[in-house]
Each structure stands twice: as C-alpha cells, then as structure tokens.
Write a structure and sequence with these properties.
The protein has 12 helices and 13 strands. The protein is of the alpha+beta class. The protein folds into 2 domains: 144 residues, Phosphorylase Kinase, domain 1 (2-Layer Sandwich), CATH 3.30.200.20; 241 residues, Orthogonal Bundle (Transferase(Phosphotransferase), domain 1), CATH 1.10.510. The strands form 5 sheets. It has a 5-stranded antiparallel β-sheet. The chain has a two-stranded antiparallel sheet with strand order 6-9. β7 and β8 form a beta hairpin. α7 packs across α9. The chain is globular.
Length: 441
C-alpha cells in the first residue's frame, strides 16, 4: 500500500504503562479514550493522544454471525492500521502506536482537543456555518481526499463526526475502517510535508502569514478520533474490478457508509469508486450550509429512496457554493464533478491550494483542553473491562428499526457537553457574510 519511504515503524504500546484519563466517545467497533504516556515509552514525552480500543469479543461475535466470515473484522482493523502508518500529510493522523491484549486491540493517533465539525456546527446560533468558513474547511477536505485518492484509498465515510479540527486550527480526517484500496488515481504521490525545500517553505510561510493576518486573529481548534455507531457496513473488503467512471480504476461492490451520506451507486450496488467521496463532500457541505443533511427520511428505507430519487433542495439565491453542492450531488457518478472541476470551481476562486495547510490563523481555535480539566476524573483503571462493558450496554440499547444511530448521537452529545472546551471564533466569521469573497489563501 505504501512505499518503504512512507511506511514507518510503529511502536507497540503496553496498557500498564499508559494513563487512561477518560472516555471520549464510542463507535461501531471501539471506544476512544484520552490517554497519556506515564513514562519514557514515547519519544514525545507525556503528551496526550487518542487511543481507540476495540473489544476482541465483539469482533469475534460479529465474525461469528456471518457463516462465510473468514476474519474480515480483524482484516478491517489491520487495514486501518496499515493505512494510518502510511500517511505523511498534515490533514491526516499519524499512527502513534498499536496495542494488543487478550481482550482488546487498538491503536493510538494524535489527540485533537477541539471536537469535530458536527459538534462545532451544533454550537453555532443557527446550527450552520457561513460561506467563508465553509470555504476554508471544504478546501482542506478536498486536499485530504486528493491525497487519499492518490494513494488509491477510497475513504467512503466522510461525515462531520469524522472530521476533526486540530490544535493548529486545521482539519484532520479520522476513522478509516470503512475505507478500501483501489488502483491509484495518480501515479505519483508527493508528500506536502516533505516536498518543499525549507527555504521555500519559510518564504511561503511569511507570504501566507502576511495574507492571513488580514482575515484571522490567532486561535486554534481540533478533535480526536471518535466513530459514532451509525455506520452501515458488511464485513467485506474484496475488490470487484469491473471498470470505473473513467475505465482506468477498479470498482468495489462493498455496501458501506453512513446512511445519510451514502452515495446512490453504493445503494444501487452497481459498483463504486473514488467518486463516492465527492458525493459525501456534497452532503457535508449541504449540512454545513443548511444545518441538516439533504436526503434524511423517517427511516433507512425512505432515506435510501430519497438518495436515489430526490433532487437536493438548494434553498436561497444562486451562489457558487450552492452550484458546487449541486454538482457534487449529481446522482450519476460519471457526470459528477471531479477533482479538477472542484478545485477550479468559482467557489474556490482565488484559493492558493499550495498554501492552505500553511494558514496560521484558521477561522476557529479551541481553548484547551488543559490537563486541569480532567483532574476531576478518577481515570479508568481497567480499560478492558470498560470496553467490554460499553459494548454490552450498547447491544442492549440497539433496536432493529433504525433508531440506534440517533441514540448513539445523543450519547455522544452528552459526552461532548461533559468534555466541552469552549473555543473562540475569529471576528467576522461566526455569522453569515455578505460576500463570497474568501481570498484568505
């Protein structure tokens, strides 16, 4: 999947040498904890990180429910860890370590204290973002997806809950257990973190800083990897090479995703490729603009029907953002706007794509969290028992009529209130703007 240069040696973590401070959230397969090294096990010292712990019993139970299962749940976990170990990109997490005991498996990634785009949007007065803020976050999502597609990875689960905002104010995509590998969209991957000479980076950084100082005040925002359990997936990662929209890449027929964000071609089962991620981007941008997803029905069946048949309601006067959303939510993947069309769209006019990740003052910056915020917590002494207990409770809470994801979201929001950090919006970006002119890049 990744070449020798990109693939890093990842240390094994010992549970007994970690301080588990609190649970940040739970997901389809695991619980995410705020953790800290309590010795010299990490070269980064006693810094915070997000530890995703997955119950072996729950994995084996899922595998056992499929008569033709051959350990696909474990393969997903291994695939996700391999993917994480390949990343060399400022908008994607770094794998900090892996953990394996008789009862749990998991891994550690960078901790981002500012929560996710879903929780951030919910904190807004009207539960939506201005066009200017959307432009910044959308541009970073495009860059992250471009990098993934260059590696041949289809993300397949883009949603606000999986988009964290780092301490620097820039985004971070997390949760790759629904991703899959196809043939690469481009033959060459250039790591933006390594490709530019330091002298050029310094020169560009000064230039960008001069530009950004006119638009932002100095603050930062980020989040940790929490996976809400509203994903629908079948344990299958096999690839069906049946052509693609350009007849140059493979397609897969796996039925995965989150129901409000899933692309029409996944529902229809005709095979899908990288274009599904651009559909998901359209849904995310719609939600950021209107405060709700465009196709949600009263149940999963109705939601899927709307995805397949309904035209998104882009209420309001025509704008470049609404036009882009409409092109992203094109039901025919062959007609859907592609990467080149997206980056060249009027909504991104004036954007310097090479300088986005160097912006020093993104629109929102979190305050904290500081270690003092967690001193009220007693800590978690038995992670294995905690994870197994959570999934037993989660199982009892589930039902078969589509209400599971809503209950999980409510549960996560309760956790978010408990872990809320505050944060500060840059002046002028917390309310809808009168202009689409966001030439901060």
């Amino acid at each position: 999947m990744c070449n020798g240069e990109n693939h890093r040696q990842v240390p094994s973590l010992e549970l007994s040498r970690l301080k588990i401070i609190s649970a940040l959230g739970r997901g389809a397969k695991g619980v995410v904890f705020l953790a800290q090294t309590n010795d010299d096990q990490s070269s980064n010292g006693n810094d915070f990180f997000a530890l995703k712990a997955i119950s072996r019993a729950s994995i084996e139970k899922k595998n056992g429910t499929n008569s033709d299962s051959d350990g696909s749940e474990y393969r997903r976990i291994c695939f996700e860890q391999e993917v994480l170990s390949c990343f060399e990109h400022p908008l994607l997490p770094k794998l900090r370590g892996v953990i394996s005991t008789d009862q749990i498996v998991g891994y550690a990634i960078d901790y981002c204290p500012g929560r996710d785009l879903h929780s951030l949007r919910k904190k807004q007065t009207e539960k939506m973002f201005s066009d200017d803020v959307i432009r910044f976050y959308a541009a970073e999502l495009v860059l992250a997806l471009e990098y993934l597609h260059g590696l041949g990875i289809v993300y397949r689960d883009l949603k606000p809950e999986n988009v964290m905002v780092q301490e620097s104010g820039h985004l971070m995509l997390v949760d790759f257990d629904l991703s899959t590998k196809l043939s690469a969209k481009s033959p060459q991957i250039v790591s933006i973190t390594k490709s530019t000479p330091k002298s050029e980076q310094l020169k560009k950084s000064k230039s960008v800083k001069k530009i950004t100082n006119r638009f932002f005040s100095p603050m930062f925002f980020c989040n940790s990897g929490i996976t809400p359990d509203d994903s629908i997936s079948r344990p299958e990662l096999r690839v069906d090479s049946s052509g693609s929209e350009s007849d140059s890449v493979e397609k897969t027929n796996s039925f995965v995703g989150t129901e409000e964000y899933v692309a029409p071609e996944i529902i229809s089962g005709h095979g899908h490729d990288f274009a599904v991620d651009w559909w998901c981007l359209g849904v995310v941008l719609y939600e950021m603009l209107y405060g709700a997803t465009p196709f949600k029905g009263s149940n999963r069946k109705e939601t899927f029907y709307r995805v397949l048949t309904k035209t998104p309601e882009l209420v309001g006067e025509p704008t470049p953002l609404r036009d882009l959303i409409g092109k992203l939510l094109e039901k025919d993947p062959n007609q859907r706007i592609s990467l080149e069309g997206i980056k060249g769209h009027d909504f991104f006019r004036g954007v310097d794509w090479e300088s986005i990740v160097e912006i020093t003052r993104p629109p929102y910056i979190p305050v904290g969290p500081e270690e003092e915020e967690f001193k009220g917590e007693n800590g978690i002494t038995d992670v294995e028992a905690f994870v197994n207990g959570v999934f037993k409770i989660g199982k009892d809470d589930c039902n078969s009529n589509g209400k599971e994801s809503e209950s999980k979201r409510i549960e996560q929001e309760k956790m978010e209130k408990k872990m809320s950090n505050g944060g500060v919006w840059v002046e002028g970006l917390d309310q809808p703007s009168e202009t689409d002119n966001f030439v901060v890049f």
